[in-house]
Amino acid sequence: MAMPDYYAILEVSPAATPTDIKRSYRRLVRRYHPDLNQQAPGEASKQIKMLNEAYEVLSNPEKRALYDARRRVIEERRTVDKEALRPKQAQQAQVKQEPKMTWVEGIFGFVRELKRALHEE
Q: Where do the domains of the chain lie, and which CATH numbers do they carry?
């Protein structure tokens, strides 16, 4: 299960101050409040729940520190995984770049090499 990006949910940067987080939270809650957002009340309530969860984590310094540590670990794992895949992807790219020949070209190439070998002897 992927960890939600609370910074993206609250539309703030990871370096945001508690004041910025609170301001953004209040702005977004107003935007998605079910009484003010009559077009999609079901989706608005889901969005409010996500905003509340994000604000609960990011407004508490201890929870935010744990969340940031988990984010860093996940990002490091992604980086390691990408680096592990690079040699395999490079190898696949080389295989794809090799010229492909039809069976007829293969037969003519074989006959040509056979003639060269016979003339050398």
A: 6-120 (1.10.287.110)
